[in-house]
Specification:
With 71 residues, the protein is an alpha+beta fold. It is built from one helix and four strands. The protein has a four-stranded mixed β-sheet with strand order 1-2-3-4, covered by helices on one side.
């Protein structure tokens, strides 16, 4: 499946990325990475809010999140 890859910027500087897959009327967040120097600023939360909005706009029946913490 093709992935949608989006970069994340904060104060016009790249600070991470996330990707998602749209398949079978569902949205799957496959990756979310925020640079360690940019963590604690609500950036990941804003990325998740974007995903929630996408789920609502497209009216997906399912959303799926698989998380793995990277140190």
């Amino acid at each position: 499946e093709p992935q949608n890859l989006l970069s994340i910027s904060f104060n016009e500087n790249p600070v991470g990325y996330f990707s998602y897959i749209e398949k079978d009327n569902a949205l799957f967040l496959s990756k979310l990475y925020v640079f360690s120097t940019a963590r604690g600023k609500g950036i990941g939360k804003k990325a998740m809010n974007f995903m929630e909005t996408k789920v609502i706009e497209v009216k997906y029946k399912t959303k799926n999140l698989n998380a793995e913490k990277v140190k």
